[in-house]
Amino acid sequence: MTDTRVDVGRKPQAHLPGDGSMWMFVLGDLIIFGAYFVIFMVYRTQERGLFLASQQHLSLNVGVVNTLVLIASSWFVARGVQAARAGEHAGAVRFIVGGGACGVLFIAIKVYEWSSKIGQGLTFPHNDFFMFYYLLTGVHLFHVLLGLVILGVVVANSRDPGRRRVSVAEAGATYWHMVDLLWIVIFALLYVMR
């Protein structure tokens, strides 16, 4: 006779997606960006008028489009992880590639925005606001580029039956979601906050 009792007191095992090394890397990045954000706020408090006047040169519409593009990329990557967990590796590849394509679109929009600002003479040394604008968006853009490399590793891993590991997809998604989260804070600080 088999035992059919259900252990009501047993809680499901918690699962931290990815691996600990990626989480430590993400935590370190969040601390560094947190310091950038605090320094930005200190300067903004000291030069409120200058920051508000300079902010008027940014297109809120461009910032919103870039935000929506990165939110869409996070959705694709999250679906890719779900597909990988379900063993649907071809679907996982398609979703991760979709997330990466959104990352490339984000870069194209950012390059357009930068070239527009530079064409108006609003360069890095123009004033403190634009120094922060180029610093924050530039460091973030580097993270997007690194994220695209990481997503490329996830795609290669998903395509190779001998190397497939869900933890690789989870680690890549962890990094990519951090990049998207950072952009949402940057968008709020540079484009929205008055």
TrEMBL record:
Residues 21-194 form the Heme-copper oxidase subunit III family profile domain. Keywords: Membrane, Transmembrane, Transmembrane helix. SUPFAM superfamilies: Cytochrome c oxidase subunit III-like. The chain crosses the membrane at residues 20-43, 58-78, 90-112, 132-155, 175-193. Its main location: membrane. InterPro entries: Cyt_c/ubiquinol_Oxase_su3 (IPR024791), Cyt_c_oxidase-like_su3 (IPR000298), Cyt_c_oxidase_su3-like_sf (IPR035973), Cyt_c_oxidase_su3_a-hlx (IPR013833). Pfam families: COX3. One of its GO terms (cellular component) is plasma membrane. Gene3D superfamilies: Cytochrome c oxidase, subunit III, four-helix bundle. It is a multi-pass membrane protein. The keyword Membrane applies. One of its GO terms (molecular function) is cytochrome-c oxidase activity. GO terms for biological process: aerobic electron transport chain. It is found in: Cell membrane; Membrane. It catalyses: 4 Fe(II)-[cytochrome c] + O2 + 8 H(+)(in) = 4 Fe(III)-[cytochrome c] + 2 H2O + 4 H(+)(out). CDD domains: NorE_like. Belongs to the cytochrome c oxidase subunit 3 family. PANTHER family: CYTOCHROME C OXIDASE SUBUNIT III, NITRIC OXIDE REDUCTASE SUBUNIT E. This is Probable cytochrome c oxidase subunit 3. It comes from Mycobacterium celatum.
